[in-house]
Batch of 2 targets.
Target 1
Amino acid sequence: MEQKQTIENAIIVGGGTAGWLAAAMLSSYCPEINFKVIEPIDSKIIGVGEGSWPSLTKELMALQINPEALGITMKIGVEYLDWGGQEEILSNRYFHPFLLRKPIRRIGISSSHSIEWQNFNHYWTVNHPYDIWKQAASKKKARSLGVHVNTQRLAWALKARALLNENCKLLSATVKKVNVENNNIISVETESGSVVTGDYWIDATGFKKILASNLKIEEQDFSDRIKVDTAITVNVQSEEENNAAWTQALAMPAGWAWKIATKGNISYGYVYSSKYTSDRKARKLLKEISNTKIKPHKIKWKPKIVTKPYQPNCTLVGLSCGFLEPLEAMSSQMMMKNIKITVKLLKQKAKSHQAFEEIQQKANERWLPWVNKAAAYIAFHYAVSKREGKFWQDYRDFANEYEEMLEIAQLAAFRKHEDALFKGAPFSVASWQVVLAGAEAVR
Ligand SMILES: Cc1cc2nc3c(=O)[nH]c(=O)nc-3n(C[C@H](O)[C@H](O)[C@H](O)COP(=O)(O)OP(=O)(O)OC[C@H]3O[C@@H](n4cnc5c(N)ncnc54)[C@H](O)[C@@H]3O)c2cc1C
């Protein structure tokens, strides 16, 4: 069957953060297209308190979503605790701030710490976190900051925003069959027996990949460089807000643990490799950190990413596109990237099918190199640590052979930030330097 040259109806399947963010953005930026979101009545989403990149903050502001109603806290960066593994290092912590755009000139553990803490400490010591948003927003600084957000509340807010647009409708249903011809999705059938047709599709069904699993997709397996594959999480109600302005990432025997505070709630999670520890041991450690008896929720995944998120008439958005691990919150960045490119694709399709295909091809070609650089950066955090234990030692042994990571790390150490390896990469030379400095790998 020939592909239709214009797009009148686009269908988004899945009502998690990815589905509703796609719905809110696409229906706002492509008003000429009608969107339908298929969301199960008993929709279950990956709902952990999460940290995002500034790109999500910018978009929430553009969509005029009120952050206070969401219990959002600002995220000025990530505090890494115990990653060095050397007790003599300045309290064994370092900070990766978002506002650090330019490479550090004089790199060294003490200088980088003082620069960072001086610049960013006042955001939370002087102000109440919720005033920061207002203050920062009024100064247009919020655009450079990320947010901590409860995923479920974010999905609800995005849903409310998307459904304000007349060209976005909800269909409460569960997809049970996907009809495909020549790798093009023609229609889906729901459990209640209705058939939904569409010209373009968004797979936002999370790890289930309901649409994508019917297409000819390939995935790259990252388990050599991304060793964690399991997370256990708990949410604890709390009025504690001291640490609300950044994510804490605490190094652990077989991975790391997060602490993320949103308004009235703290999310704890231990992200670990199932090869190096047991669920029982992990639960014990999480209990100690979180100081709660609440039974944690367990999530398991294979660190794999789809090689081409832009299929002939479908984009894979969110977890359906794959997942590495939560360190450095790459998922929200991937999600945003894929939605933005889809906006471009849908707009272009109305003008020229050839241009649409060109954008699609280019975006697919650039995708994997970009993801590989993100994976290299994530692996780098573990590789430069001097922590003891088999998990950490194995990471270092592997990293000695991981050429792309070594190459970029070397450039970062010598501040060769003009190099093509950093062009269009998800993390700047300054971000690499922060990790190098934090682990006292350079002075
Ligand atoms: C442990 C962990 C920690 C994370 N931490 C972070 C972080 O700090 N920062 C960050 O940016 N990201 C993080 N992420 C990723 C983030 O959670 C996701 O990118 C984000 O929530 C988007 O999820 P999603 O909407 O793709 O999938 P989900 O939330 O799983 O939503 C899937 C939707 O599809 C629907 N669905 C499923 N089957 C069907 C069907 N047959 N028919 C119709 N609909 C269907 C479901 O009901 C649901 O509505 C983390 C992920 C994990 C696993």
Target 2
Amino acid sequence: VADVCEVHHELRQFVVKEAPPTVFYIPDFISEEEEAYLLQQVYQSPRTKWTQLSGRRLQNWGGLPHPKGMLAEKIPDWLEKYCERISSLGAFSGKTANHVLVNEYKQGEGIMPHEDGPLYHPTVTTISLGSHTLLDFYRPISSQGAAGPQTEESRYLLSLLLKPRSLLILQDEMYQHLLHGIQPCSQDTLTDRVVNLSSAGALPGETLPRGTRVSLTIRHVPKVMKAKLILGRK
Ligand SMILES: O=C(O)CCC(=O)C(=O)O
């Protein structure tokens, strides 16, 4: 049985050793031309592809993940290219990504700490476009042994700096155990809690103003329904 977390040799140099297992951070995974093209495609998508949430809006590609199986939809070529490229690094243990979430965060927007849940292969890969952000990680609320109140602050563990054009891969404890979120703020002052500063080419004390960030969250949904089966069940 192949290890679920087996990745291509090429990736090993990008492990963030200062974080719990396992984080890969790959700066400049795509070029500026690819970034501009991807942003153009995102903003050329039909207006109906957008879902407005409080604090961000998103596009869902590939189908809606569901406990009974995702009714798979074709992923457009401009995204499929990256599904294949990331899958060929071994991120999904030989499977090809079949789901992409496009999130758009305007300056000052974010996402509450959450886990990605059981509908996905336990790997999340994210390409950042347009602006950096800080992705913050938190321990889950524990039911036992907690001395004092478990505030978000007391559960906070570390952050990762995600620069535009970078690829982030999270697996193992970082995916399965910790929660991740983005604070809704308009700038970030970097501290030594941002554990990938050197590989992201930044220095502690630096303040980075946020702009509009678009992220492509590329995943594999193992349980899929074939449309044919449904249409056949008359
Ligand atoms: O935008 C990001 O990098 C995080 C997205 C995320 O956590 C999610 O869509 O579940």
